[in-house]
Amino acid sequence: MSDNSIIIKEIDTPVTGFESFEGFLMNFGLPHENVIAELEERRVIMDNLPRFLDSLSPEVKKNAHYLSKFVAGTAIGLFDASLNYVWNEVIISLREKVGVYGIEIFFDSAVGEKVRDNYKSKEDLAGLKDKVLLDTCRKLELISDLVYKKLSHILMMRNDIGASHPNTYSINSFELLGWLKTCINDVLMDKPSNASIEIKSIVDNLKTNKDEIDSDSLELFKIKIRDLSSVMSGNLLVAIFGLFTAKATEKTIKENILKLAPLVWENCTDDVKYKLGEKLDGYRLKLDQERLKAGELFFDICNGKRYYTSDSRVIKLSSLAESLEETHLAWDNFYHESPIAQEIMSYIEKDSDIPIEREDNLIKVFLKCRIGNGKWYNQGVSPGAKPYYDKFFKLLNKNQVKKLLGMLESSEIRSLVLNDIGAEQCIELLNLLKTPLIGDRLNEIIDYLIKNKKNLYSAFKTADYKDLIKAI
User: Fold this and answer.
1) CA–CA separation, 405 vs 447, rounded Å?
2) pTM score, whole prediction
3) Pairwise CA distance, residues 139 & 145, whole Å
4) What is the pLDDT of residues 21-35, one digit of tens each?
5) Phi, psi of 256 (to 5 degrees)
6) Cα–Cα dist 291/362, whole Å
7) Closest among 275, 272, 273, 291 to 283, alpha carbons compared
């Protein structure tokens, strides 16, 4: 037996041909460096992979063609291709989870009202960026915050060094094995949270129940809804609002929704209610009188008329913010972000020009765009749009800066500072916020984060940081 072979369960598994393959490429004048992994790296994979495969149940392995491709890719030395095989299976699995959870509920959370009508079926999930899929799955608790963090890192590394984006960096064997284990154990073998299952159950029961909800059931529902997080309550509110305003929904179902709606409404944040108010304006602009009338009745029952937002300026800014976020996640975003950011800032000259109804949304979208995508090119930020982002953050008042700092603690935003480039851009942004007008405590918090720039991701979870933010 050749020295360049590895025995796995008495099966001769070749890892030979490394030098001959490189020679083959050289004979044709083709690049041969950093094409396949070093022989030692492949040996590490083949030494450790059998134990992991043995730990998987037969049910998991039965139809796991991606695993067969992964093994083949690693044996050959194409680690980036192997990562792609696993990642593609993760995306398929997440889409399956979405299908089980409910397509309509998912799209209500994933896409804006402007393009919502374009997303109707499971096939339309392919039109979403992987990052949008991850963000929405986390929001709906189809994956945990920890899994979201891990997958965001894998996605970033895949995009930076995978086969789809050639790079001189080589994936090492231990990284690849760790990512494989994360994807299988935390996604492919995982189940949605109890809260997400509860939301789906409520919506499904509303759709199928033809009987009037009695008082005992209402009391039980009232108790259950109080245990849901504000995010999950918001997801439920958006779902039942969409069901109530749908033209095909039967009368009995609508009557039952009107009984439940006020209970859900009480447990939701203002941001969700303002967003539903914008949906009413969308119906009004489309001259969709049937859905508009149903939506106004929903708000009336919930005593929510103060969340109406008929101001066309608010609607315009919301639409622009939605377009900016979608553009930021699309190809050639550096070129197309600038005109949208410029138009947004044409409505904003001072902090009071930022509509309170959409203040959170505008700050969050600008925050994502200003921190950027973590890529080396232009330090991950659109150079044309950057001056507009900086102008926006310099305008923020004390309360708006508080909101921004709160957003920086969220998993969605913190994942953007996992690498050095994203962290550096975040530090630049924090420096823009510093002014005596926001008070000593907020400046102290900002200085603390700047001081911990080398470990910014973890800085938000330290005891010192938590002590600082107690007073705000």
Assistant:
1) 12
2) 0.66
3) 9
4) 777 778 888 887 777
5) -65, -40
6) 27
7) 291
